[in-house]
Amino acid sequence: MTDIAERWWQALRRDRPDLALPEQYDLWYFGDSEDLARELLELVLAGTKTATAGLVWGADEAGTPKPGGYSLITDFDGTPRCVLQTMEVRVLPFDRVDAAFAHDEGEDDRSLASWREAHWSYFGRRCAELGREPTLDMPVFCERFRLVYPQPRG
Protein backbone atom coordinates (compact mmCIF):
# COMPACT_ATOMS: atom_id res chain seq x y z
CA MET A 1 0.00 0.00 0.00
CA THR A 2 1.22 3.49 -0.66
CA ASP A 3 1.30 6.11 2.08
CA ILE A 4 -1.11 8.32 0.13
CA ALA A 5 -3.59 5.48 -0.34
CA GLU A 6 -3.38 4.42 3.30
CA ARG A 7 -3.89 7.99 4.57
CA TRP A 8 -6.83 8.45 2.16
CA TRP A 9 -8.41 5.15 3.28
CA GLN A 10 -8.02 5.93 6.99
CA ALA A 11 -9.39 9.47 6.53
CA LEU A 12 -12.41 8.08 4.67
CA ARG A 13 -12.99 5.51 7.44
CA ARG A 14 -12.81 8.29 10.04
CA ASP A 15 -14.91 10.87 8.16
CA ARG A 16 -17.54 8.45 6.81
CA PRO A 17 -18.25 5.85 9.52
CA ASP A 18 -21.59 5.24 7.77
CA LEU A 19 -19.68 3.42 5.02
CA ALA A 20 -18.46 0.82 7.56
CA LEU A 21 -15.19 0.33 5.68
CA PRO A 22 -12.90 -2.42 6.98
CA GLU A 23 -9.20 -2.07 7.76
CA GLN A 24 -8.20 -4.33 4.86
CA TYR A 25 -8.60 -3.41 1.22
CA ASP A 26 -7.10 -4.11 -2.18
CA LEU A 27 -5.35 -1.31 -4.06
CA TRP A 28 -5.34 -1.22 -7.86
CA TYR A 29 -6.17 0.65 -11.04
CA PHE A 30 -8.03 -0.46 -14.14
CA GLY A 31 -6.24 -1.62 -17.28
CA ASP A 32 -2.60 -1.50 -18.25
CA SER A 33 -2.15 2.06 -19.51
CA GLU A 34 -2.88 5.57 -18.33
CA ASP A 35 -5.55 6.11 -20.99
CA LEU A 36 -7.32 2.83 -20.27
CA ALA A 37 -7.18 3.41 -16.51
CA ARG A 38 -8.76 6.84 -16.93
CA GLU A 39 -11.42 5.64 -19.40
CA LEU A 40 -12.54 2.71 -17.24
CA LEU A 41 -12.49 4.74 -14.03
CA GLU A 42 -14.76 7.35 -15.64
CA LEU A 43 -17.22 4.60 -16.60
CA VAL A 44 -17.29 3.45 -12.97
CA LEU A 45 -17.78 6.98 -11.62
CA ALA A 46 -20.62 7.53 -14.12
CA GLY A 47 -22.34 4.37 -12.89
CA THR A 48 -22.01 2.67 -16.29
CA LYS A 49 -19.38 0.08 -15.38
CA THR A 50 -20.42 -2.33 -12.61
CA ALA A 51 -18.21 -5.29 -13.51
CA THR A 52 -14.66 -6.11 -14.48
CA ALA A 53 -12.72 -9.16 -15.59
CA GLY A 54 -9.21 -10.27 -14.85
CA LEU A 55 -6.90 -13.05 -15.90
CA VAL A 56 -6.73 -15.69 -13.17
CA TRP A 57 -3.19 -16.60 -14.18
CA GLY A 58 -2.02 -13.07 -13.41
CA ALA A 59 -3.83 -12.98 -10.09
CA ASP A 60 -2.03 -16.00 -8.64
CA GLU A 61 0.22 -13.94 -6.36
CA ALA A 62 -2.53 -11.61 -5.13
CA GLY A 63 -5.49 -13.95 -5.44
CA THR A 64 -8.80 -13.27 -7.08
CA PRO A 65 -11.24 -10.81 -5.53
CA LYS A 66 -13.57 -12.14 -2.83
CA PRO A 67 -17.26 -11.25 -2.45
CA GLY A 68 -17.66 -8.64 0.28
CA GLY A 69 -14.10 -7.38 -0.17
CA TYR A 70 -13.26 -3.72 -0.76
CA SER A 71 -10.95 -2.11 -3.29
CA LEU A 72 -9.47 1.36 -3.35
CA ILE A 73 -9.22 2.29 -7.02
CA THR A 74 -6.61 4.80 -8.09
CA ASP A 75 -5.65 6.70 -11.20
CA PHE A 76 -2.75 5.22 -13.14
CA ASP A 77 -0.44 7.50 -11.11
CA GLY A 78 -1.73 6.15 -7.77
CA THR A 79 -4.11 8.95 -6.77
CA PRO A 80 -7.09 7.45 -4.88
CA ARG A 81 -10.38 7.99 -6.70
CA CYS A 82 -13.08 5.61 -5.48
CA VAL A 83 -14.01 2.62 -3.34
CA LEU A 84 -15.65 -0.52 -4.72
CA GLN A 85 -17.17 -3.49 -2.93
CA THR A 86 -17.03 -6.86 -4.66
CA MET A 87 -20.50 -8.37 -4.87
CA GLU A 88 -19.88 -11.52 -6.93
CA VAL A 89 -16.96 -13.36 -8.47
CA ARG A 90 -17.21 -16.18 -10.99
CA VAL A 91 -14.28 -17.90 -12.67
CA LEU A 92 -15.06 -18.88 -16.25
CA PRO A 93 -13.20 -19.84 -19.41
CA PHE A 94 -12.76 -16.78 -21.62
CA ASP A 95 -15.18 -18.11 -24.23
CA ARG A 96 -17.92 -18.73 -21.62
CA VAL A 97 -18.27 -15.09 -20.52
CA ASP A 98 -21.82 -14.07 -21.44
CA ALA A 99 -23.48 -11.03 -22.98
CA ALA A 100 -24.99 -9.87 -19.67
CA PHE A 101 -21.54 -9.65 -18.10
CA ALA A 102 -20.11 -7.89 -21.16
CA HIS A 103 -22.94 -5.34 -20.91
CA ASP A 104 -22.24 -4.71 -17.21
CA GLU A 105 -18.57 -4.05 -17.98
CA GLY A 106 -19.89 -0.92 -19.70
CA GLU A 107 -17.17 -0.67 -22.34
CA ASP A 108 -17.41 0.14 -26.06
CA ASP A 109 -20.89 -0.73 -27.37
CA ARG A 110 -21.41 -3.12 -24.41
CA SER A 111 -21.79 -6.13 -26.72
CA LEU A 112 -20.23 -9.54 -26.19
CA ALA A 113 -18.40 -9.24 -29.52
CA SER A 114 -16.68 -5.99 -28.53
CA TRP A 115 -15.95 -7.37 -25.04
CA ARG A 116 -14.24 -10.40 -26.55
CA GLU A 117 -12.21 -8.32 -28.99
CA ALA A 118 -11.00 -5.82 -26.37
CA HIS A 119 -10.34 -8.41 -23.68
CA TRP A 120 -8.59 -10.84 -26.03
CA SER A 121 -6.15 -8.03 -26.78
CA TYR A 122 -5.79 -7.06 -23.10
CA PHE A 123 -5.44 -10.64 -21.84
CA GLY A 124 -3.00 -11.32 -24.69
CA ARG A 125 -0.74 -8.57 -23.34
CA ARG A 126 -1.05 -9.97 -19.81
CA CYS A 127 -0.30 -13.49 -21.04
CA ALA A 128 2.82 -12.24 -22.83
CA GLU A 129 4.04 -10.68 -19.55
CA LEU A 130 3.51 -14.06 -17.87
CA GLY A 131 5.15 -16.08 -20.64
CA ARG A 132 1.86 -17.76 -21.56
CA GLU A 133 -0.24 -18.03 -24.69
CA PRO A 134 -3.85 -16.83 -24.57
CA THR A 135 -6.44 -19.56 -25.18
CA LEU A 136 -10.20 -19.57 -25.51
CA ASP A 137 -10.43 -21.60 -22.31
CA MET A 138 -8.03 -19.45 -20.26
CA PRO A 139 -9.60 -18.80 -16.83
CA VAL A 140 -10.87 -15.29 -16.17
CA PHE A 141 -12.52 -13.96 -13.05
CA CYS A 142 -15.72 -12.05 -13.67
CA GLU A 143 -16.26 -9.60 -10.82
CA ARG A 144 -19.42 -7.60 -10.22
CA PHE A 145 -19.05 -4.67 -7.86
CA ARG A 146 -20.85 -1.68 -6.46
CA LEU A 147 -19.47 1.82 -6.18
CA VAL A 148 -19.36 2.63 -2.46
CA TYR A 149 -17.69 6.05 -2.63
CA PRO A 150 -18.31 8.51 -4.14
CA GLN A 151 -21.90 8.12 -5.29
CA PRO A 152 -22.26 7.46 -9.04
CA ARG A 153 -22.67 10.60 -11.14
CA GLY A 154 -25.04 8.97 -13.62
From TrEMBL:
Pfam families: ASCH. Residues 28-149 form the ASCH domain. It comes from the Bacteria. InterPro entries: ASCH_domain, DUF984, PUA-like_sf. This is ASCH domain-containing protein. It comes from Inquilinus limosus. The lineage of its organism: Bacteria, Pseudomonadati, Pseudomonadota, Alphaproteobacteria, Rhodospirillales.
